[in-house]
Design goal:
CATH topology: Rossmann fold
CATH architecture: 3-Layer(aba) Sandwich
Largest sheet: 7 strands, parallel
Shape: globular
Number of domains: 1
Distance between the termini: 29 Å
CATH class: Alpha Beta
Radius of gyration: 17 Å
Number of strands: 7
Strand content: 15-25%
CATH superfamily: NAD(P)-binding Rossmann-like Domain
Amino acid sequence: MSNLRFAAPKERRVALITGGARGIGRAAALRIAEEGRDIAIVDMLDEGAEVVKEVEALGQQAIFLPTDVTNEAAVKDAATQAVARLGRLDILVCCAGILGMEAPFLEQSAAQFEKVMRINVFGVYHAHQAAIPHMLAQGWGRCVTITSGARHGATNQVPYGVSKGAVYSFIGALGNAYPKQNVFVNGVEPGRALTDMVVPRFTPEFLANPGNPIGRYSDAEEVAEVIEFLTSERNTYTTGSVWSVKGATG
């Protein structure tokens, strides 16, 4: 980092990760912890406690904050607890999300649409509103949210696709809001990673040869590498961007 004039000194920073109990969220938590960060896992799944143990085994502090990301007050409280118990809040990674039903549009109820939007969009909104004030106060922060190629339109996943389109717009808007205060907001758009959201939906034969240019789907850890960079001091000039991690163009 010696040639990065605008890089902040590397410190023992704190990352809050929604959906950190498994999948890309867990992989991001462990990868960021490897860089000397303490971790607050925000999730409704009990596996969050196991991730805390994994982070602690890396020599970092970690806490598990069972939280419903659709609840604005609960998310704000989680951020407050992270600061109180870990001393600060520097990094936000939003991985909490659901696919919802895979069904034709006319079979998707308004209730299903609302459920997906509340988790995938409102959860991201609440998390940024809770975290960014802490980052602005200290003059440094990095936020990353997972979006999806479904934002271009997914016929049998309309609620999910709409939610990810909203997240894409959100990243662009906030990416331009605070860079002069050294708070960057970015996104990562995986192709399909081998997580619990993807693997059960396909046959082993398809997963072994999905037909994309690279010839396989990613491991969550490969996506986490990009997330770690975007949340690091090494990221000195990227904000408002969505990085493709698809094993292909686009």
